[in-house]
Amino acid sequence: MLDFRLYMAQRLTALIMAPLVLGHIAVMIYAIQGGLSSAEILGRTQGSLFWLLFYGLFVLAVSIHAAIGIRVIVHEWAGLKGAALSALTWATGLGLLAMGARAVWAVTAA
């Protein structure tokens, strides 16, 4: 049952990430073609609730998606099981979430 829930969680996070990736790429193309500097980009993102929520959701989805993917890879390649595998999954997910949240905060709120 856990495997099915993880499978579904990974698929759901992929559905969330797909439009966010496309949105991120579109914004990057716009910024590059517009010749925006880093300072100009930060001027537009800092203090923006929209970008905080956009990239916050992106980071949350990526953290869950990647942690589950790494769990599957480590289980298949290294044969890790049980509590050690769960600990690795949680550590990966929380680590990615912490790093991503810090980056989102720096770009949108600092």
Structure in a nutshell:
With 110 residues, the protein is mostly helical. The chain is 88% helix and 0% strand.
Describe the protein's architecture and organization:
- The protein has about 110 residues and is an all-alpha fold.
- The chain has a single domain (about 1-110), classed as 3 helical TM bundles of succinate and fumarate reductases, CATH 1.20.1300.
- Helix content is about 90%, strand content about 0%.
- The longest helix is centred in the first third of the chain and has 32 residues, at about 1-35.
- The radius of gyration is 17 Å and the shape is elongated.
- The mean pLDDT is about 95.
- GO terms for molecular function: metal ion binding.
- It is found in: Membrane.
- It holds the Pfam family Sdh_cyt.
Distance between the first and last residues' Cα: 42 Å
| Count of separate structural domains | 1
Shape: elongated
Oligomer: single chain
- Written as H for each helix and E for each strand, in order along the chain, the element string is HHHH
Q: Structural class of the secondary elements? A: mainly alpha
How helical, in percent, are the residues? Answer: over 70%
Q: Which regions are unreliable across 5 or more consecutive residues at pLDDT < 50?
A: none
Taking the sheet with the most strands, its summary is: none
Residue-averaged pLDDT, rounded?
95
Strand percentage = under 5%
CATH topology: 3 helical TM bundles of succinate and fumarate reductases
**Spatial extent as radius of gyration:** 17 Å
InterPro entries: SQR/QFR_C/D, SuccDH_FuR_B_TM-su
Pfam families: Sdh_cyt
GO molecular function: metal ion binding
Keywords: Heme, Iron, Membrane, Metal-binding, Transmembrane, Transmembrane helix
